[in-house]
Amino acid sequence: DSKDYDREVKSICPFCGVGCQLSYKIKDNRIKYVDGINGPANENRLCVKGRFGFDYISHPHRLTKPLIRKEGMPKGLNVDPADVHTHFREATWDEALDAAAKGLSDLRAEKGTNVAGFGSAKCSNEEAYLFQKMIRQGFGHNNVDHCTRLCHASSVSALLENVGSGAVTATFNEIENADAAIVIGCNPIENHPVAATYFKQFTKRGGKLIVCDPRGVGMGKFATHRLLFKPGADVSMLNAMMNVIVEEGLCDRQYIEGYTENWDEMKAHLADYTPEKMAPICGIEPDALRAAARDFATARAGMIFWGMGISQHIHGTDNSRCLISLALMCGHVGRPGTGLHPLRGQNNVQGASDAGLIPMFLPDYQSVTDDGVRSAFTDVWNSGDFSNEKGLTVVEIMDAIHAGDIKGMYILGENPAMSDPDVDHARAALAKLDHLVVQDIFLTETANYADVILPASAWAEKTGTVTNTNRQVQMGRPAVTPPGEAKEDWWIEVELAKRLGLNWTYSHPSEVFAEMKLNMSSLDNITWERLEGEAVTYPSLSPEDPGQAIVFGDGFPRPNRRARFTPAKIIEPDERPDAEYPFVLITGRQLEHWHTGSMTRRSHVLDAVEPEANCSMNPRTLRRMGVAPGEMVRLTTRRGSVEVMARADRAIAEDNVFLPFAYVEAAANILTNSALDPYGKIPEFKYSAVRIEAA
Ligand code: SF4
């Protein structure tokens, strides 16, 4: 009803990587409600988070003034936001920025690598670009990372290795043109709900859906094949499916010969992975493996979608290598209805990675080890060279703090005190820092360890571009003004950089975007002015081209334009269940709560629907333990223990437990294992040996 609001602003949802376009309806500088609009990814649809998860921005916990820790106040207490002034004193912006810069530059004077940075996948492309530039230009090294390390780093490493590009090869909307699709290691009905609506429509028109997951995820209801494999057994299951495709002569020989390399090695490797041999390992009967493999291989067009069930393993890169090989051997890349699509998590994790917020790559995945690449950037930055060594990743940075090699951090919009694996280890690292600057909208668990807190803007309060899972670059617009003295993140970054002695003169994000284009060919033909009017998918081949929904139809950005088959062997999870820890813990998200919960637990509708920390267990397991649904259980791993309400869920195997990581009172990452995939350096969030007891 138009009487309900006095103006509307079109922008992008701040939560998941689907990147739904929405319209904020505003009255008296408050968002009254939200409607979906016709963006390329969502076509007017929104999920419960996009529709109802907006009032966190006016929550009384918002940080409204810069804060400096009071002399002698201990770090790391979980400060009640209402009690913030006992621990911190309010400061002017000048005072806080001076204190932040002094702490960081004093450490820099000793050694540049003393300071590391975590940027944010929740901020704009321009803010991500500025953040990595500050660390590289200001401190001379590449110790800069963000939550992609905990999300799809292993998928990106496999994609870069084998198809030459870390982004999706086709938009998820291409499923409209597919006959078969594999959805594996993800739960799109809860985590990418609007994308899931396209998947459901695909099945209604007869598309064959192959859902593979250790949990009986919601998409399974729509599946032609439902493969509930054992946690961590991805490689055995996928190799068995590929074995079937080879043995039954279902490969696309023409495609393999025309567009790929290393096929002979791959084919020889697969010979050992028969469904009969793999069935006891992955828990799927040979006939079921054969039937699913046949439907995917014989489809005219097939797509593969995956999530963190694939990526968050010590063999995460191998899991993605298998998926890439599976698509290639069937010729399911580069045509309508085909493609490889790792569903991105945060609203701008694709864009932040593209913008170089990673320790091994500058913007557009240009290697920091390449002298020519670095000099192209320092020419634009009008500054001296920085290190040619790849920087440390998220978990490695925490280890380096414990080792005394990193003494200061600048953390923008990330919450490692909740999101890191073995989080007590990460919290102890944060407490050990000599100087920590946190820039955020709330007093997050991480901000509890800060020396200086810089109050930032929520997504609905700022201008900037974001890039969704589909490679669609879209414009975010400010709907309301930030509370109190909170500022847009790019402004804070610029002011801090100036105090660190950098020659930054930006006065608007559009100037940053213009600079990004100088060394990012992915943004060719995409201008700020264009984005003000429309979303553009990269690559865009001309100023009129809306962008390429499907790429690599005529070859890959690799030597000889060929994609590569990289065989993967079975690697056991880092730790196995035993008599002391007999269950397998799987962590993840649930529909209503987003990541570490800082936003959604302050959105009253979402928090009312899911107000309490919970874990999901098979009803038979609960009965065996004498625990009724709704009662508390204690989960204990080799790293720690949490108490949480148990929920009966037939979708969980009897020897598994699922725990969302949004709840500070039962922080899942107290339990998780920090063992890393050697390529993507992503931790094994999806497999920990755990003991369960009645609490
Ligand atoms: Fe927002 Fe993702 Fe939901 Fe779309 S699907 S409304 S982007 S959370």
From TrEMBL:
<protein>
    <submittedName>
        <fullName>Formate dehydrogenase subunit alpha</fullName>
        <ecNumber>1.17.1.9</ecNumber>
    </submittedName>
</protein>
<keyword id="KW-0479">Metal-binding</keyword>
<keyword id="KW-0408">Iron</keyword>
<keyword id="KW-0411">Iron-sulfur</keyword>
<keyword id="KW-0004">4Fe-4S</keyword>
<comment type="similarity">
    <text>In the C-terminal section; belongs to the prokaryotic molybdopterin-containing oxidoreductase family.</text>
</comment>
<feature type="domain" description="4Fe-4S Mo/W bis-MGD-type">
    <location>
        <begin position="6"/>
        <end position="61"/>
    </location>
</feature>
<keyword id="KW-0677">Repeat</keyword>
<dbReference type="GO" id="GO:0008863">
    <property type="term" value="F:formate dehydrogenase (NAD+) activity"/>
</dbReference>
<keyword id="KW-0560">Oxidoreductase</keyword>
